[in-house]
Specification:
There is one protein chain. This protein is an alpha+beta fold. It has 2 domains: about 200 residues; about 160 residues, no CATH class. About 55% of the residues lie in helices and about 20% in strands. The protein has 11 helices and 13 strands. Strands 1, 2, 5, 6, 7, 9 and 10 form a 7-stranded mixed β-sheet that branches. Helix 5 packs across helix 10, helix 6 packs parallel to helix 8 and helix 8 runs antiparallel to helix 9. The protein is globular.
């Protein structure tokens, strides 16, 4: 176990020097739409690495995408993207046109920037977006939307789980904005498979107790509940701290470091179930790794580029949503796990087998994110 921990620590320390500039992170695009008094315009930033996988940009196959190769595929890129974005105004189809593309650098690599012009039959009071970019290639892909209208900015996460969403363009209430951000927080935790597996790794031993150098069924539900309460509280407090600091711009870390460290935290949490190092104070591990996960949560809000007037509301609402999403997972898992805790199915199949499977999957995520590899089909 300690040899494995030292190996992971060495990998985390060294990948920053060894990894290429465009290390893998979860696939995102950034879509902004602005309604003014006379027009609806927008901008769509899409990662070149994702477009290369979808339509093939690297013509010579040397592993590097040049400006010339991107420029030669401008028409293909625009056609591919616009075929996967539909806009309706008050129920009527709008025409979306692409302008001259540019290249921009995000924290995780180069993106093509597509200016958008949206023409609707009349000035709409409601926009409905249908977003299917990379839906057939990557079920974890997200489109991070920033919508500005009536002097207000709002955010949404588009993707396979919620491809069509409607937005009223009238000035939203503060409560409405809060609910929107809370909904996005719930959705983010539910589609954040690495966050879910980390939480499950901590929950799996909650219905067990470390006695006589082995895991045994917990004596009563109260002990299991208190253990979960400590873990969830520590994780919530920790990620709230770094979520706030990162979203407000106090601390900024490269996304490839954050995403790789999150994957490593899942590996370590799962291995800790098989070879316990922290069994009495797992809440301390939840707090330490929760600090890392907070930076991952913050990337969603920070990358939207929300104005300062909206950040505080977005921060609180999004964080509340994340907590509600976590509590839903705990509420579904804990009673069932407690009922099964003294069965061989749970102790060997769910606990040991599940922990091992989580460790293997998270190790593959770590390798992908740290060393720019493609090992999994999703």
């Amino acid at each position: 176990m300690m040899r494995m921990l030292r190996w992971l620590a060495l990998c985390m320390a060294s990948f920053g020097l060894a990894a290429p500039a465009m290390a893998h992170k979860p696939s995102d695009s950034y879509l902004s739409i602005t309604q003014s008094a006379t027009a609806i315009t927008g901008q769509w930033d899409i990662a070149l690495r994702d477009l290369d996988f979808a339509i093939g940009l690297d013509a010579d196959g040397n592993g590097e995408i040049t400006w010339g190769e991107v420029r030669a595929h401008h028409a293909d890129i625009a056609a591919y993207a616009l075929a996967r974005l539909a806009v309706e105004g008050d129920g009527q189809p709008c025409v979306v046109r692409a302008g001259e593309q540019q290249i921009d650098q995000h924290t995780d690599g180069a993106y093509t920037v597509i200016p958008l012009q949206v023409s609707c039959p009349s000035t709409p009071a409601q926009l409905r977006l249908t977003y299917r970019l990379f839906a057939d290639l990557d079920p974890q892909h997200r489109g991070l939307l920033r919508l500005e209208a009536k002097g207000q900015s709002r955010a949404a996460v588009l993707g396979p789980g919620a491809p069509t969403q409607a937005f009223d363009l009238a000035q939203p209430s503060r409560l409405g904005q809060f609910v929107d951000y809370a909904r996005e927080g719930v959705w983010h935790i539910w589609i954040g498979y690495d966050h879910i597996l980390f939480l499950l790794s901590l929950l799996l031993p909650a219905v067990l107790a470390w006695q006589a150098a082995r895991w045994q069924p917990a004596a009563n539900f109260r002990d299991a509940f208190v253990d979960v309460l400590k873990i969830v509280t520590a994780f919530t407090l920790a990620h709230s701290i770094t979520l706030s600091l990162a979203t407000l711009g106090v601390i900024s870390l490269p996304s490839r470091w954050v995403e790789s460290a999150i994957a490593a935290s899942v590996v370590l949490a799962a291995l800790n179930n098989l070879w316990p190092v922290f069994h009495a104070r797992r809440w301390a591990m939840a707090f330490a790794f929760g600090l890392i996960h907070g930076f991952g949560f913050a990337s969603v809000l920070a990358d939207l580029g929300l104005p300062q007037g909206t950040l505080a509301l977005a921060l609180v609402g999004f964080n509340v949503g994340v907590e509600l999403g976590q509590l839903a997972i705990v509420a579904a898992f804990l009673p069932l796990a407690f009922m099964l805790r003294d069965t061989r199915f749970y102790q060997r199949g769910v606990f040991v087998g599940g922990s091992a499977a989580i460790a293997v999957l998270a190790a593959l995520w770590f390798a992908e994110r740290a060393f720019a590899l493609k090992l999994l089909p999703f």
